[in-house]
Amino acid sequence: MIMLQPVSYGSWKSPITSDLIASETLGLEQIALDGSDLYWIESRPAEEGRCVIVRRTSEGEIDDITPAPFNARTRVHEYGGGAYAVFNRTIFFSNFADQRLYRQDLGSSPQPITPAGDLRYADGVIDVRRNKMICVCEDHSIPGQEAINSLIAIDLDGRESKKVLAQGYDFYSSPRLSPDGTRLAWLSWRHPNMPWDGTELWVSELDGDGSLGRAELVAGGLEESIFQPEWSSGGVLHFASDKTGWWNLYRWHNGHPEALTGMEAEFARPQWRFRLSTYSFVSPDHIICAFTRDGIWKLASLNTTRSEIDPIEIPFTEISDVRASSDYVVFIAGSPTEATSIVKLDIRSKKMEILRSSSKVAINEDYLSLPQSIAYPTNQGLLAHAFYYRPQNRDSAAPPGERPPLLVISHGGPTGAASGALNLRIQYWTSRGIAVMDVNYGGSTGYGRAYRERLNGKWGIVDIDDCVNGALTLAERGEVDSNRLIIRGGSAGGYTTPSALTFRSTFKAGASYYGISDLEILAKETHKFESRYLDRLVGPYPERRDLYRERSPLYFPERLSCPVIFFQGLEDKIVPPNQARMMFDALRSKGLPVSLVEFEGEQHGFRQAENIKRALDAELYFYSRIFNFQLADFIEPVPIENL
After folding, report:
1. Do 396 and 535 fall within a single domain?
2. Please, which pLDDT band fits residue 45 given cuts at 50, 70 and 90?
3. pTM higher than 0.90, yes or no?
4. Do residues 343 and 377 share a domain?
């Protein structure tokens, strides 16, 4: 029996390095099936975040389709998604640098099929019958005017100008063509709604030239969110709706929505990005679907003739991008011990195959902390949810009686969700002796519409309360050190972080990634997709300007009394970089320890390997100086004012 030498929490030496996380991992998204070929996109930090379309043939050969320097990424809604479509081995994709659509026949170089200009494209579907792509278009060509969104048709050879099919709503998504090419379904919604608040599902006949006929409203409204309209091969329209308070599956039958599931579970995700998929058809009456309950995703088989759902036992807790054929289903999945991967499951034999993993390195499970799903009391007599990770490292043990620091993570969105799947950026902390609590505060998805709507009118209140109460619960249990409570978050979580540090006294340090410190500036300067988001979360602007100022930490620097480190991309179009600078200046003037790390060429979320590495290490270095623990490895110092 080996006796471990006690080492203080935070000082444990870990094999989960920032180099490994930044250079040996990649993002996986947007699966597509084309005959027997599979396609997906890989986001590669080692290539400065370039998004590459990858193909896997039926023989198992994997090769890159998108040649450098092309980058398959769209900026519609700024968050993108649905950046490519494929049919009969011809790929159509949006190139990030110029936002033009390109056509690429296998073995040939990409050729533009849309003109240069201020137009963006996403979520395309191929209309073979008319040699068109039907997609969402976002027009930024008129200076000083809000972008115009529409559904358009584009000639696949680029010989004709675009044709506008539908226009007038603020937003469009999910154009889906019936198998016979005679009908088009789509989603639309208006300000101030976000797609998880309320959307409308429309269906229209398509004329011979591809023009829309009379459109019929199928489902949805101001208080009903519709997700992922899809046609079965038999020409029946299916979709998810949350009209019961939970996103369940429906089909359009005899002129009415017919429920296929009726569970207190979510068969959908918040539509931050295009082309999300939680279900797919094996046959006209057989669906493979994914749903989440209490933060855990499951896979199931649904017989639509009997509305019977049968679980499929798989070792994954996070599932997305479900795509099926008659023989197999492919999806992106992860578990607490397995990196996110593209998985192929034979429908009959249930045999699974990992086609691609997001990480090249296997981590010994003795270094991994497994998430514990917890519910705990919060304000108003309610329960909040989180994943709790204890420090874990087989080579290290803390001195008797010492309790670990706690890093509370506030996820982005704020309409989003924390996941219990393996996340090396969490294990980076736990393997060094720092406990982590990943909070699904009120407003998060996966717990029903009522839980999601807890944040309406109360952003900057409910999210903070749930983070604070989670930290205090663990401290009261004796799990963590109440004098070393830290909060961190990115984007919306980067608003909760400085707000919690300003308006509460629970946390002793924080890290804000591309976060929001002035809600009023966000309301006035952010992009179209989120320009009215705060109407529900805070209140209508400028009518309730008082609330925006009351909940903006920038205006109350005198209340902030602990150290903060800020990280900001200088090309961020969602949260203006000046927000981080103003907060940094305010804390520096007050004499608090503060640091600001800015990255050229980065936007909302860091994609380049060197910057991902620098941010992780700088944050750890910052905490080591604030809480006076020794680092196990050398980290390049980050300048800290007032220390």
Report:
1. yes
2. confident
3. yes
4. no
